[in-house]
Design goal:
Rossmann fold; alpha/beta; 7 strands; globular; seven-stranded mixed β-sheet; 23% strand
Length: 188
């Protein structure tokens, strides 16, 4: 059995709940519900819950500071549970992918994502990233307002489908089958 840390990125508070930037939190909530994880507790500067997926122990974590300081609490929980970088998965929004699209990647640059910048500086870069597409507003000057806007009503079906597929096929990713995971999620 391997211990994994799955971190969903987002911003705390009800005002941000439906924001595009919070798709990582949404995915963590779906995983927790689908696999019957334990009740969440507040520690390490975030919300943590535990469960099993495919015989692996999972610590699901939502850092509850703002996106740009996600690295500090994430490094604390990883250190406490002795989770190596190779067994950390981060779920986050990606402007360069259309809503409903997903990519999995190990390491790389932050691509200007403040949550990833913070993680990179505190834990390193070679963690696995689940990049969930949120689309792009078409103009870089509109990005800030766009990521902090809620998904539109007509987008909710696609949003729920990609989050559900991510949760449903997570066992493949935990088993090291990144290609199989992406294939299953894209076909769901």
């Amino acid at each position: 059995m391997t211990n994994f840390l799955i971190i969903g990125l987002g911003n705390p508070g009800n005002v941000y709940t439906g924001n595009r930037h919070n798709i990582g939190f949404m995915a963590i909530d779906r995983i927790i519900a689908d696999y019957g994880f334990s009740k969440s507790s507040l520690k390490f500067g975030g919300s943590v819950t535990e469960g099993l997926i495919g015989g692996n122990k999972i610590f699901a974590f939502k850092p509850l500071g703002y996106m740009n300081i996600s690295g500090t609490p994430s490094s604390e929980i990883a250190r406490f549970y002795k989770i190596p970088l190779k067994d950390i998965i981060v779920i986050h929004d990606d402007l360069d992918l259309a809503l409903g699209k997903l990519r999995v990647k190990r390491g790389g640059s932050s691509g200007g994502h403040n949550g990833l910048k913070s993680l990179d500086s505190h834990i390193g870069v070679d963690y696995l990233r689940i990049r969930l597409g949120i689309g792009h507003p078409g103009d870089k000057d509109l990005v800030s307002d766009y990521v902090l806007s809620d998904f539109r009503k007509e987008e909710t079906s696609t949003l729920h489908s990609i989050i559900q597929a991510t949760s449903s096929h997570l066992g493949l990713l935990l088993a090291g089958d990144e290609a199989g995971f992406m294939n299953k999620v894209s076909l769901s």
